[in-house]
Amino acid sequence: MLSAKAQKILNDYFNLPFEGLSGVRCPYFNNFRLKQRAQLRVLVGKGTPSEIVEEAKIISVQYHAGLFDKTGHCCLHNEHTGEKISPKDIRKFLIDHNLGIECSGFVTQILRAHFLETSGVDIVRKFFIVSPRHILRYLISLLRPVENIGVRHYANDFNTEKISLDQAQSGDVIVMLETGKKNNLNHILLITEKIGDTIKYAHARAWDSEGKYGHGVSSGEIKIIKPNGSLLEQQWVEQNFEGEKNETFIEAKQAKILEIRRIK
Fold first, then answer.
1. Nearest one of 48, 99, 92 to 67, comparing CA atoms
2. 0.85 exceeded by pTM
C-alpha cells in the first residue's frame, strides 16, 4: 500500500480540495505545447493538489471570475451570472486557464510523499536528472527538481530498475516510451496497489475520445490472466473500457519500450 500521506495526495488529485465544493477531478495539463520556462511548477503541470487550488483562486480574483468568495470558499452562485457553481464549472475554469497535472508530475508528487514517509528519502533530490558537466541545466535541476523530472528519468537505470510482472507492488511504475500514433510521446502509470492477480494503477492522461473537457486523472486495473505472459497479454480495464476501446492499453501497445520499474 502507498503511505498515508501519499494516499491523501492521490485522493486529493481525484477530488481537489476546494473549500465548499467536492467532486472536482484534476484535469490533465502538459506544458509541451506552451513550453513555458521559469514558471511556478503549478503552471507547468507539476503542482500539488493544494497548489492547483490556490492558483485557481488567484486567477479567479485576477480575472474577476467570481468563482470564490473573499475567504477562498467556492461561491454557491457565480456573482456575475447568478448560476450555481458546479464541479463541472470549476473543471472548465481550470482547463481554460491551463491548470492541471501531467503524468510524471502526478507520479512524482505522490511518490515523493510516499518515500519521505516510509524511508525518509526525498526522491527528487536523489534522482539523477542531468550530468554536472552541463553546468547550467544541472544547477537548474538542483533548484527545480520536480519541474525537471520526466518520464525518461523514471526509465533511467540510475534511478530505477526493471522488474518482472510478478514482482510488481504499490509504488512501482509502468513506463511507456515513444508511444502514440507518431511514437513521439512518453507516459507513466503509478501502481497504487496489487491485490491477488490484479494490479491497480492511477495516472494523469488525456484520451482523444474525451475531448477538451473530459480528461484528467484516472485509475484502472491490469488483471493478470497470463502469469507468464507480458504486460500486453494481460487484461487492461479503465473506465469500464477494455481492448481497443481502452486508450491507455492502446498507448501501451504503441510504445517502443514498455516496462515495470522500481525506484532504487
1. 92
2. yes
Phi, psi angles (nearest 5°) of residue 76: -70, -30
243 to 177, 193, 197, 214: CA distances (angstroms): 20, 22, 18, 20
pLDDT for 49: 98
Q: Is 253 in contact with 180 (CB distance < 8 Å)?
A: no
Angle at 58 between CA 147 and CA 82, to 5 degrees: 135
DSSP-based three-state secondary structure for 97: coil
C-alpha cell at 241: 473500457
Write down the H helix ranges in the chain: 4-14, 49-62, 87-96, 103-119, 123-126, 135-143, 145-148, 151-154, 247-254
What is the average pLDDT value for the chain, to the nearest integer?
A: 93
> How far is Cα 204 from Cα 135, in angstroms, rounded to an integer?
32
* CA 94/CA 215 separation, integer angstroms: 12
Instruction: Note whether 124 and 149 are within 8 A (CB).
Output: yes
| Cα distance from N-terminal residue to C-terminal residue, the chain | 18
Q: Which three cell numbers stand for residue 13?
A: 488529485
| Side-by-side strand order, sheet with 235-238 | 160-163, 257-263, 173-179, 185-195, 198-205, 216-223, 235-238, 241-242
The model's pLDDT over 116-171, given as tens digits with 9 standing for 90+, comes to 999 999 999 999 999 888 888 888 888 899 999 999 999 999 999 999 999 999 99
